[in-house]
Design brief:
By secondary structure, the protein is of the alpha/beta class. Helices cover 36% and strands 14% of the residues. The chain has an eleven-stranded mixed beta sheet with strand order 1-3-2-4-6-5-10-11-9-7-8, with helices on both faces. It is globular and about 70 Å long. The two termini are 29 Å apart. The structure holds glutamine. The site of glutamine (GLN) has 13 residues, from loops.
Amino acid sequence: TEQTFAEIKRIDPEIDAFLTLNEDGAKQAAAAQDVAGIAADKPFAGVPVGIKDNIVTKGLKTTAASKILGNFVPIYDATVVEKLQAAGAIIAGKLNLDEFAMGSSTENSAFKTTKNAWDHTKVPGGSSGGSAAAVASGQLPMALGTDTGGSIRQPAAFNGIVGLKPTYGRVSRWGVIAFASSLDVVGSLTRTVRDAALTLNVIAGHDDKDATTADLDVPDYTAKLGQSIRGMKIALPEEYLGEGVDAAVADQVKKAAEQFRALGATVDTVSLPHTKYAVPAYYIIASSEASSNLQRFDGIRYGFRAKDVKNLDDVYVRSRSEGFGREVKRRIMLGTFSLSAGFYDAYFKKAAQVRTLISRDFDKVFEDYDFIIGPTTPTTAFKIGSKVTDPLTMYMNDILTIPVNLAGLPALSIPAGFVDGMPVGLQLIGKQFDEQTLLQAADAFE
Ligand code: GLN
């Protein structure tokens, strides 16, 4: 643990991944571990881990990278945090993100801009940019992230590491500060596929406190690592190599397809025809849910309250106006509009229908294939500042990750070569609750 903090202090001033360090808490937790008694039931004994700062940690500041929660110290642990600690993990600290996980570059954090581990002039991706950069820069072996529209996979791709977004309902969201409740999933950022499997072993499972968690057994996700993928059928959607996808990134994916063929799998081109509607549908659904979830931040119950207020309305309006950043306000306005009486049918209902069509596209492909591959992102990491004034271009960065959230599927991003010195992410998308096949295939590829 001491070595971990020495490394964090050496490396993080250049990366800015951490919002809060838990140095005293971590050292106490480590000292309290009975080293002699460490057994197989503590697979993370002594292992330092980082937690995205939209996941609550008892007694440890949790801000969601928002001024409105700037001084918020939770009174309980999220289920995933509890499970990691029960497995022996040591919480090293809380990691930067886009405010309330809304963004693709971590530039929407109210507190700091995290840098890409490979090139400090570039973004680490988002919204789990702090988690990805901390792992990729060698500060931690594992950090938790959340993925609503790509926020684990896209930063994993930009930093050349492994990002696992489990099936919706596989991992408890209890204690995760809600963004879009029908899309949010907790997962891991790690340097290896095996570490992703080991993490899922610990965090997956039914939770009485989250009614959307599935009551299914948790298999040993390491069980199929090392096994051959000979005979597996892989689909490569033509839309995932189409317009907007950088040609050099597409080339890396084609090379990956060849590598899978060399491992004995078949790779065929398929179509997911509704892909182009995923981003607009997502921004209506996610913003609508966010506008509702964020109503609780009213200046009364949590965190920031505006000064010198005149009356109760003034408390609400001024606390929210001063506490939320630009992107969060943009989403609240978009979501409130989409849900309003006059526009619900035209926007929210339509988006929900499109969501069903996107799910069916996937179902159809999975009738014949074991999993799907494609790029995780259309480009490699971009320059800090280059997209902040253009939200639509920023939104389009998620075109290849968002459909997966709308359908609730599991997906992994793994490193697949470089373009101009920057890592490329290969995305593997699986059937619901079939993380095991994805991990097996990713491990064979690795
Ligand atoms: N970039 C997407 C957004 O801004 C996805 C974010 C996420 O997955 N949390 O909504």
